[in-house]
Specification:
Elements: H1 6-13, H2 17-25, H3 31-38, H4 42-49, H5 58-68, E1 83-86, E2 89-92, H6 93-99, H7 122-132, H8 142-161, H9 166-189, H10 193-209, H11 213-229, H12 233-247, H13 253-269, H14 273-288, H15 305-319, H16 322-332, H17 338-354, H18 358-374, H19 378-389, H20 398-407
Antiparallel strand pairs: 1-2
Helix pairs in contact: 1-2, 2-5, 3-4, 7-8, 7-9, 8-9, 9-10, 9-11, 10-11, 11-12, 11-13, 12-13, 13-14, 13-15, 14-15, 15-16, 15-17, 16-17, 17-18, 17-19, 18-19, 18-20
Length: 412
Amino acid sequence: MNFQAAAIRDASRAGDYGKVIELARQGRMTQRQLGEALGLSQSAVSRLEKRGTDSYSTDILARASAHLGIPLALMGLADSRPQVEVNGSDVDRRDFLGGAAAVAATPVLAALPEAADGATGQATALRLSAIAYRRPDGSTPSRDLGEAVHSHLRLIQTVTHTAAGDAERRRLAAVGSEAASLAGWLAWDMGDHGSARTWYGSAIKAARVARDPLLAAYQTGSLAQFEAHTGNAVQALNLTRKARRSLGTQCPAVADAWLFSVEGLAHAAGGDRRAADRALAASRTAAHTLPTEPPPWPWVFTFNSVKVAACRVTCGARLGLPEWVLSEDVEALATGHAKQRALLVLDIAAGHLAGGRIDAAFALAGRALDTGLQYRSGRILERARAVRRSFTSSAPPKVVRDFDERLHGVYL
């Protein structure tokens, strides 16, 4: 993208940042896809792009800038020094964007929980830095991110030991929980299931120290999602029930919708088609009622019907139901980054395989394998091997033999 183009420069000088976003988006993604990344509806993106020189939300501009790679100066975020609000306190925008990794470092940020006393400081800066590590996950091998995240966790632990007062320690525990959850996700992507369980367990414990029931439920649900994907149906269902119990009657709509999708994965892992179908239907119904604004923290990415479609594809692949997979595949692929889409493509390949379309299945699997090798993702590679194991033949066709040749001897 040429950000030196006259049209973009002219729009920026005029303060028409919506036009800057439109020009940067065109030819790369649809309004719907950008909205998915920013936690907005397609119509909201359309209104944003047509706003002209009216006032803009700094948060939205920062997120759009990060997702589209637009230089901050073109969005009016680097030169002036107006105030923005973080956790209830005004801070200088330049310090916010430069010194604390900023909202611009990640494509979608939920509203951060407000400290009881309105304080900012170490907990806020550490949280922003922790969240900033999420964005490179979509374009960077987890092995390259892992050490940085582990170092950040050690810093959080050090700061927590010297924190003054229980309130600050609880805020830091919440930050540590979020960072530990990310470490669990990275370990999972690397195929290190033992470390993933350990990190998710640490995230749950830290959330309890933070005395945040919603955060604890989110981390428990994240571990349940991991167990469902790895085939541990009973454990996954027990964890989702535990997450719901921890929230009681105070279960936000986004948590309800998301936990239903996790339950669907768990039932699919256990081979229960009817229960999976009921859970996914409940998740879709709940997702349709969710507001269009960004979800509450600790959710940092929007949950919507597209995510439910992706979940149904995965469930269909696990259950061997090509009609589930192929009825949702187009919508499902509208979400996620390259590694997530590769996993979905492998689920779609499994659907084709279950329907007897061998050539199509392994052509898709080959594309996903390319992504797995590019990002050195153990999770993608293992899923590719699982798709291959599901096909048995004494005389496999050439497309399968070619896939075997590429897969054989791959070590990360």
